Amino acid sequence: MCSIDFGFIRDFVKHVREKSSSDNIFCCGEYWEDSATTVNKYLDDIGVQFTVFDAPLHYNFKEAGEAKSAFDLRKIWDGTIVQSRPVDAVTLVDNHDTQVGQALESWVSSGFKPLAYAMILLRLDGYPCVFYGDLYGCGGKNPQQPVTQLEDFIRARKLGLLGPSQLCWLGTDRRGESSRWLCSLFHVSTSQVVLCNGSEGVKTMEVGKEHAGEVWTDVLGWHTGEVTIGEDGRAEFRCPAESVSIWVNKDAHGRDEFSKAK
């Protein structure tokens, strides 16, 4: 859905960059379609680097939040702009149009929002955008509570807890008929981010032998236990049901900035 001709957008972006003598000026617009194929064609037609809001990702978040443990988290990025052209994607969870009572109402469930924000804020690809209403709450006829400790997710990004490497899926935890996929968003030595969209999950992950003996805790405080890194650089990390854990060395710089710092 676009109300401005793509030719005008193309010429406008070219003009601004030419007049500023810089090809690095950030330009963003809203082309709200849930089809990555349609959005990619639009960006191709513009013919210059241009960034759009990742509507397909928003709808994946909505679907995952409604399906809960029935949704395979490995597919959360499928058909998204950030997957196909990360430099052109502004990643988001909700906005003023998707909130309850608005024209494009497709509100992501409150229970899934912490997972969704962990995915966009602790991932290197894309330009994450935080909705004011999720950070401070929504008033009016359809009030919504703010996302719990969203400021700590932002703080984790600010302090560099996201990693420079690619997304890694580390496996599944199976019990009986159920299957819950966990993910380490950034498999690096500085942190481990674990998400679970089912019941409580656990996964053994490697952080590096140089961290042997260190004690790590969840900076969110949602998992109250401690993890000691083994001599082989591996440890067992847990995540509460339908939740997120961000495991970091308890003595890491900036730990005292978190609202539930231990």
From TrEMBL:
Superkingdom of the source species: Eukaryota
Protein's name in the database: Uncharacterized protein
Lineage: Eukaryota, Fungi, Dikarya, Basidiomycota, Agaricomycotina
Organism: Naganishia cerealis
